[in-house]
Structure formats: structure tokens, C-alpha cells
Amino acid sequence: MTGPTAPSRRPSGMTGLMIVLAGQAISILASNMTSFALSIWVFQKTSSATDLGVMQSAFTVPYLLLIPLAGVFVDRYNRKLMMMVSDLTAALGTLSIFILFATHQLEIWHFFIINGFIGLGSAFQWPAYSAAITTMIPKEQYGRANGMMSLVQAGPSAIAPLLAGALMPHIGLTGVMIIDLSTFLLAIGALMLIRVPPPRQTVEGQAGKGNIFKEATFGFKYIFQRPSLFGIVIILFAANLFLGFPNSVQVPLVLSRTGNNSVILGAVETAGAVSWVLGSLIMSAWGGLKNRIHGTLVGWSFFCLVGNILFGLGRGLGVWIPTSLLCGLGATLGNASSQSLLQAKVAPDVQGRVFAARRLLTWAPDMFTPILGGLLADHLLEPAMQSGTGLARAFGWMAGTGRGSGMAVEMIVFGGLTITALLAGYAFPAIRQVERLLPDHDQLPGAADTRPD
């Protein structure tokens, strides 16, 4: 008979989280360098906003279709292992692009297939990381931890375009991708060093057990049975439906207005990333508003006002840089607040499934809005704004009538619709009063005394 298992000496808590995020930061930096270079390569090949939209949808569709099943695996099995799956899949996708490019066989359609493959693996990432935070640190630190996660995503973006631009003349796209592939080893190695404690077992978790179909649908039932969560999902669905249109045309808008100037695009993207860094630093130190629904709705509304409407009105760096430097402040507040709210209210042992269901429901428009946004720009708004028709007369005073003017109109109009959808949440008490109506997970039955050894 063996004695009790000795407690793991691997770091957990904030120390463990910081180790993981350090490895991710380096990997994300290299991946952003590759993504920046490849986006320019694709647009120069096609001059089509639609193709960029199809590439994005090729990632999103398989990602969202698999995520309910990924949520089941996150709750059933070792969450650290699930976190590694997404890194391994992304590494294989990058390796495929590298081989095709190095052998001069890379075509646009290859991105659609490879992005779909990467999307399958990435389905495990968000529910696994989000659920892991819940068991690694106390709930009072959720806002700070989510701010740190935003910082890790935003920080590398601030320097990736500039670093890629500096390295490309010397090592080329091939060299950039080699760096990217090597950093995946650091990210996976960091995960192997830390310990992710298992979640507490709750009455709600026990009720959600069963065959894989029952567990895959449990997250949806959990949300539908709680009017506050369901209301927030509806609001975020509507916001993402509208937001997908301006998101799909921002890069081609800048390239169209500047004659495919990658330096200007890099400056704009760097400014946006710096804003995310500043916002993430603020959230890491502050933790956000006590009433997290205000942070969610107001934060994202501010992002759309500055990052969509005001950005769309601009025609050069004089507007694009200031708006990019401001918009990330709202986005990080909205993102960290929304995430912290969910982590505090949902039982830890069902978070993988609930987080996955919530992402599918709120991100569903992303399966088609990037394509629709590209088509709307390429085939309706761009030709109309440059032809001197009624649309050009109506919007030309604010967006101009040259290349990129149709995409500017798309950003302005759909940015306004997104803000309207977000602020509509205040009209519903179930959403407005979610903090009071839903108990925190540590108040749920069984949460205090059923943690597995």
C-alpha cells in the first residue's frame, strides 16, 4: 500500500501564471511577426479585402465548431495538457507554411486550409487558460490576471511589426518563421514547469456529468437557464455581429489609402498594440471596476467610438495614431471585465464547457462577417464611393471618395451600430444587475469541501 502523494513542488499561483505568460509572450511576439509579414504578402498578391476575410473565417469556423467539445475535454482532463494542444497545433500550422514558402509552392488557398487546422487546436486555448486562472489564483485577483493576459497578447504586438520590418531585409520571411517555430518550444516548456490545481467539485459540476454529448451541451444549458448570462451573451452576439465588419477592413483600409505602405501599417498596428499594453498594465495594477458589467459595456463602447468611428474618419497617421493609442484602453477594460465576471460567477468544474459555449454563442458572427465585410467593401461600398453616386455624395464629406473611402464608411456605420448594441444592455435589469442576481462560484453548494486531493 502506498502512502499519500506528496504535494507538487511545481510553482502555481501568480508565480506559476507569470512563468506561463512569459513563455507565451515570447511565442506570441514571433507569431505576430509572421502574421504581419504574411498579411502584407497576401494583400500584395490579391489586393482583396475579401481574401483576408476568408482567411480569418477559415480559422474561425472550425475553431467555433470544435470549441464545445474542447470545453468537455478541458473539464474532464488535465487543463495544462489542453493548453499545450493549442501551442502544438499552431506550431504544426506554421511549419506547414514555412515548408510551402521555402519550396516556392505557397498559394493563397493553402492559408485557408492551414488556418482551419490551427483553428481546431486553438479551440482548446481560451477555455483552458481561462479555467486554469480560476484554480491558480484567488477570485480577487481575476481582474489583474486577465489584465496580465491582455498584456502578454498586446505587448508583443507593439514591437512585432517594427521588429519584423527590421529583420525582413536581412533574414527574409523564411528567417522570421524559423524564429517563430523555435519559440513554440519555450511556450510549451514554460507550461511543463508549472502546476495547475484541479477545480473544486460542485453540485452543478456533478449535474453536468454524463456522456460526451450531454457534457458538450451542458455549457449552453447552463447559460440559457440563467437570464443574466443569457442576456449578456445576446448583447455580445449583437455587438460582434456589427463589429466584424469594421474589423475585416481596417488593414486593407490603411493599405488602400497609403498605396500598400507597410511602414505606415506597421506604425498604426504598433500604436494600437501600445494602447493595449497601457490598458493591460492599468488593468494588471487596478483590476477594473467593482461592477464588472459597467467595465464590459462601457469599455467596449469606448473602443468602438475611437477605434472604428474616429479611425474611419481619418485619412492618415495624424488621426490613425492617436485613435489607435486610445482604443486599446477601452478594449482591455471591456475584455478583462467580461472575463473576470464569468470566472467569478461560473462553477470552476464546469468552466471549460461554459466558457466554450459562451465563446461559440458570442463569436458565431465571426464565421461569416469577415467575408461579408470584405465583399461589402470590394463590390459595393468601394465602387459606389468612387463613382460619385448618391452614397458618395452622402458620405464623401466625411470619408472622401478615393481608394479606401468605402471601407471608411463601413467602419463608421458599423462602429455606431456596435455601440448601440452594447449600450442597449443597460435597458435590461437582468444584465444591468448581474453582479447582484448571480452568486459568485465560492458561494455555490459543495464548493468549500469537495476539492480532490
What's the arrangement of secondary structure elements?
Layout: H1 13-46, H2 49-76, H3 79-102, H4 108-122, H5 125-136, H6 142-193, H7 203-207, H8 212-224, H9 227-257, H10 262-286, H11 292-313, H12 317-345, H13 351-363, H14 369-387, H15 390-399, H16 405-423, H17 429-432, H18 434-437
Helix pairs in contact: 1-6, 2-4, 2-8, 2-9, 2-13, 2-14, 3-4, 3-5, 3-6, 5-13, 6-10, 6-12, 8-13, 9-13, 9-14, 9-16, 10-12, 11-12, 11-16, 14-15, 14-16, 15-16
Structure write-up:
- The protein is mostly helical and 453 residues long.
- It has one domain: MFS general substrate transporter like domains (Growth Hormone, Chain: A), CATH 1.20.1250.20.
- It is 79% helix and 0% strand.
- The protein contains 18 helices and no strands.
- The protein has helices spanning 13-46, 49-76, 79-102, 108-122, 125-136, 142-193, 203-207, 212-224, 227-257, 262-286, 292-313, 317-345, 351-363, 369-387, 390-399, 405-423, 429-432, 434-437.
- Helix 10 (262-286) runs parallel beside helix 12 (317-345).
- The protein is globular and about 65 Å long.
